[in-house]
Amino acid sequence: MSLLEIRDLRLVFDGFEGRAHVLDGIDLSVATGEAVGIVGETGCGKSVLARSLLRLNPSPPARVTGGAIRFDGADILGMDQAALRRMRGRDIGMVFQDPVTYLNPVFTIGQQMAEVLRAHEPGLSRRALRARSVALLESVRLAEAEALLSRYPHELSGGMRQRVLIAQALAGNPRLLIADEPTTALDVTIQRQVLALIADLVRRLGLTLMLISHDLGVIGAVCRRIVVMYSGAIVEDAPAEALFRAPQHPYTRGLLAAIPDLNRPEHMPTSIPGSIPDLRHPPSGCRFHPRCPLAMPVCAREKPPLIPADAAQHLVACHAVAQSMAPAEFGLSGTPA
Ligand SMILES: Nc1ncnc2c1ncn2[C@@H]1O[C@H](COP(=O)(O)OP(=O)(O)O)[C@@H](O)[C@H]1O
Ligand SMILES: [Mg+2]
């Protein structure tokens, strides 16, 4: 059974300037132990999706208008505040993008570790808190963890601060770890080290991982399965190897073509023409159709379903791909000309 099951999730933000249709029917199942990457341009709804799993989108203005989220069978959208508090951190741990915003500058690392631990285990003694804090900081490969407890966030490098946030996300022994752009604020070398740490933790602790990034390279370094989002919907969901070798959706192809290829310096990366839609007035049908080289009349009318392409585990939401795949079926069910 799936650990996480998202069905037709729809979410809007109500603002003075109108209603933004941010999540447009998300379908995603994640099995225990999977490492899934979610990729897509900035603004496509990755963070809103991640926060909706923990019910952390501010409401108002956010409102879930349809669908369901189940974690290990439990109905997340139906949970009361007490159940949500129990779930956050203990079932699902989350690492946010910006270590500066999520660490408080006026408290020491030790105080902030203790606060997180106490939220999960209120009865811990000071000595136990200290020991657990040191063990957690060591588990994210921070040297001299004992000494770090009396340091303030500004005394740490960006990479160290991100490790502290990962340690905090692990404090409640979650089964699912969500890391939302965990390395975007870091330089490339540190980025690689933090990604290696996440991959290692996932293996060692048997975690299920949802790694979110706008960068396919980051996702590809850690995840065996890649989910591509465009404007609030999943357009492709495939094993990483298949996605890089044989991308199906025109948007995924565009994303891949935009990555510089170091082995082929003569190959110029090309960006996808146009820009992401205004979510208050999203395009009808497939939201990618105004930018799509394969767009057909049906694309402006109907949202394509996410269906298996060349393999059962390779899902694509594209009318053009569906048509090119199944001429026989179309012939059978269609009316003779
Ligand atoms: N609190 C909020 N209020 C209003 N709109 C929001 C809020 N949070 C996110 N959005 C909107 O939701 C859309 C998706 O945002 P986000 O999930 O942060 O994108 P991504 O993480 O993929 O870059 C954006 O248009 C953003 O402006
Ligand atoms: Mg984001």
From TrEMBL:
Subcellular location: Cell inner membrane
KW Isomerase (keyword) present: no
Gene Ontology biological process terms from the UniProt entry: peptide transport; transmembrane transport
GO molecular function, one term: ATP hydrolysis activity
Membrane topology classification: Peripheral membrane protein
PROSITE patterns: ABC_TRANSPORTER_1, ABC_TRANSPORTER_2
Record InterPro entries: AAA+_ATPase, ABC_Ni/Peptide_Import, ABC_transporter-like_ATP-bd, ABC_transporter-like_CS, Oligopep_ABC_C, P-loop_NTPase
Pfam family, one: ABC_tran
Keyword field contains tRNA processing: no
Keywords: ATP-binding, Cell membrane, Membrane, Nucleotide-binding, Transport
This protein's name: ABC transporter ATP-binding protein
Organism: Muricoccus nepalensis
